[in-house]
Amino acid sequence: METPKPPTIALIGTGGTIASTAADPAAMTDYAVTEPVSAILDAVPEINALADVQYCQPFNVDSRCIDDKMLLKLARRVDGILADPAVDAAVITHGTDTLEETAYFLNLVLKSRKAVVMTGAMRPASARSADGPLNLYHAMLVAAEPDAAGRGVMVVMNDGIHAARHVCKTHTSSVQAFSSQEHGCLGGIVNGKPRFFNTPAARHTLATDFALAGVKALPWVDVIYDHQSAGPHLFQASIAAGAQGIVLAGTGNGSMSPAAEKGLRLAARKGLACVRSSRVGAGAVSASASDARLGLISAGSLNPQKARILLKLALTVTRDRERIQWYFDHC
Ligand SMILES: NC(=O)C[C@H](N)C(=O)O
What we know:
Elements: E1 8-13, E2 20-21, E3 32-33, H1 37-42, E4 52-56, H2 68-83, E5 89-93, H3 99-109, E6 115-119, H4 132-143, E7 153-157, E8 160-163, E9 168-169, E10 178-179, E11 187-190, E12 193-196, E13 221-225, H5 233-240, E14 245-250, H6 258-269, E15 273-278, H7 291-294, E16 296-298, H8 304-314, H9 321-330
Parallel strand pairs: 1-4, 1-5, 5-6, 6-7, 13-14, 14-15, 15-16
Antiparallel strand pairs: 2-3, 7-8, 8-11, 9-10, 11-12
Bound molecules: asparagine.
Protein name: Asparaginase
GO molecular function: asparaginase activity
Binding site for substrate: 63, 96-97
């Protein structure tokens, strides 16, 4: 019997700690992005037995530096790669600090059923027990698994397979830095094999209204963090700077300090789309009876940084409050 041809997987390097080195093997901070994606791949020769890999490097930066232009460039590049019938799946290496933002953005705009798996590392490539090589190998295992297709963008870190919709960075430095909170993982790597237990319920990839054709720039959306004794000046500054939306990192279940309520009311009156999210880190912000009267949108279980991504994309399609609320309820 002929052995089946291994899948062709596109590896797209964007930087992050997985591509970084520090002064010595004990150093876990104070590193810099130095490694091209080819070097990250060469460090894991076991991948050769899994897949034919074609790599590219749209940019190579720490993920705190990623801006809208880079996000659009990456999304267009990945969409183009996935449209190639010769490519079966894609793996993207990325810094972990803003990984959840890029993952959710791609989850909403890529128009493909093919598996897209993102991964990174918490320890630099030069570290004594670097986690990047195993994370990359696991990401390739998941991308090569036929059952991975149709689940949207996934994040593979430290043996877990997470849905882009739910995954958040919840630790500053541990290798167990990512969690899908109460929603749970999609699955995990068990004894060298990917196992899926869940499938994402929210709309993604082919089932969203969002596409990048014709989008030259993304609308500007600010996140404003609420707290005791807040002032209205950040809202005023955001409106004056020309923002098209504001996401409030509100207290508790998206509740607002008096200044935040005043600031959001003003912003909504000026035509900005205003979303109530929460700074708590778990649970959903539920719709409130006053949202329609105040012109506000509730973020559900999206944290502020992910609510910002969805609001930016929603504003490429509509400014209608109810339609935007629908996106927050379904995407
Ligand atoms: N662990 C990491 O990847 C953090 C890094 N500073 C980044 O996000 O690019």
